[in-house]
Write a structure and sequence with these properties.
- The structure is a single chain.
- The chain contains 14 helices and 2 strands; from the N terminus they run ααααααααααααββαα.
- A two-stranded antiparallel sheet has the order 1-2.
- By secondary structure, the chain is mainly α.
- Helix 1 packs antiparallel against helix 2, helix 5 packs antiparallel against helix 6 and helix 11 packs antiparallel against helix 14.
- The model has no long low-confidence stretch (mean pLDDT 89).
């Protein structure tokens, strides 16, 4: 590093100090309820001046400082939208928060009551079953469609667009459209006047059908991308060696796109586990299922259960506790799936 100009060093230190002072003053004014309209401008100006001072600061770690400056907006956004709300959520889940205020700290009571609730445990089991079945179903259908759309079929571009189109429709709209189909259309032809959504088991199947219809086209596009990366020379060589279509598929094409399977399984796993909009619009958790002396919402998945607890029953602290557990379970399951899939890629 060359000789540092004293003037440059003085300027950078002065800018850092001025930026810190302006930022602190603006924050103090905001937290004390000041009505001064300049506090926002002061905060922005303080942050900008601080960053300029850091950028001009002569030091051996200047490159690291520049990297931090450029990463700061992303890190700040992530902290504000993810880390801080998550930390606040954990705190609120241990209180009697009602969405507006709290009066006392209750510790782990919300978590203990949650796991004692038959309604919550039932939602957990139903969500688990839906996740497993939907993940398998969507990937099988999507991979089959990908094979079809990468074959020599005429009009395959049209089929790609047609299969992908349902994914562009929002889950709420899609749920209400299919609700009409299940309640009004199908009963007239094959259900003898009864709606699938009125039967606890058939309502679960109905959500699976709509979820697969909506999401398979999106996963199909990822599989198509993966299949197109398989070198044609390898396929041609296998054909010359006498390998039939099934052997080529199972021994060459699938092993060569295992990374694609990892991505697709991860996406379908996460999407299935946190299913909400389609569940809310199509069944809203109905119909009721009687199990002994208990009555449960037959198709109330975990995300909908959290929504009903917090918004429907105004139990925000209990709903937040469920949301924290929901996040932890999803993170653990997702990381486990990715780890296992990555090991499988190495083995193949």
């Amino acid at each position: 590093m060359g000789k540092v100009s004293p003037a440059k060093k003085t300027f950078s230190l002065a800018a850092i100090a001025a930026g810190l002072v302006l930022s602190v003053i603006a924050l103090v004014m905001d937290f004390t309820g000041s009505t001064n309209s300049m506090r926002g401008t002061m905060l922005i100006a303080g942050v900008v001046i601080l960053l300029v001072g850091l950028y001009e600061l002569p030091t051996e770690k200047h490159r690291m400082i520049i990297n931090i400056i450029f990463l700061l907006p992303l890190v700040f956004s992530f902290a504000v939208t993810v880390l801080l709300p998550f930390a606040a959520g954990i705190f609120y889940s241990m209180t009697d928060w009602n969405g507006v205020s709290l009066t006392k700290f209750v510790g782990l009571s919300n978590y203990i009551n949650m796991f004692k609730s038959g309604e919550y445990l039932y939602s957990f089991v139903v969500t688990f079953l839906f996740t497993v079945i939907n993940m398998i179903l969507v990937n099988l259908v999507a991979f089959a469609l990908a094979l079809l759309c990468t074959s020599k079929l005429k009009g395959r571009d049209f089929f790609r667009a047609a299969f992908f189109l349902p994914n562009l429709i929002g889950g709420i709209v899609l749920g209400y459209v299919w609700q009409f189909v299940f309640n009004k259309v199908l009963p007239e032809f094959i259900m003898d006047g009864a709606s699938m959504l009125s039967d606890p088991n058939l309502a679960f199947v109905a959500i699976l059908i709509v979820s697969c219809w909506q999401y398979a086209g999106y996963i199909m596009m990822i599989y198509i991308t993966g299949l197109q990366t398989v070198p044609k020379e390898v396929i041609e060589a296998s054909s010359v060696d006498g390998a039939n279509a099934w052997v080529t598929l199972t021994k060459i094409r699938i092993p060569m796109i295992m990374n694609t399977f990892t991505v697709c399984i991860f996406l379908t796993l996460v999407n299935s586990f946190k299913q909400f909009d389609l569940n809310f619009a199509l069944t809203a958790g109905a119909p009721a299922r009687i199990m002994g002396d208990n009555i449960y919402q037959a198709t109330e998945f975990l995300a909908l259960n959290i929504y009903n607890t917090a918004i429907g029953r105004n139990q925000y602290a209990a709903g937040q506790a469920k949301a924290v557990v929901f996040f932890v379970i999803l993170a653990v399951v997702s990381l486990t799936q990715v780890t296992i899939s990555k090991k499988k890629e190495v083995e193949l």
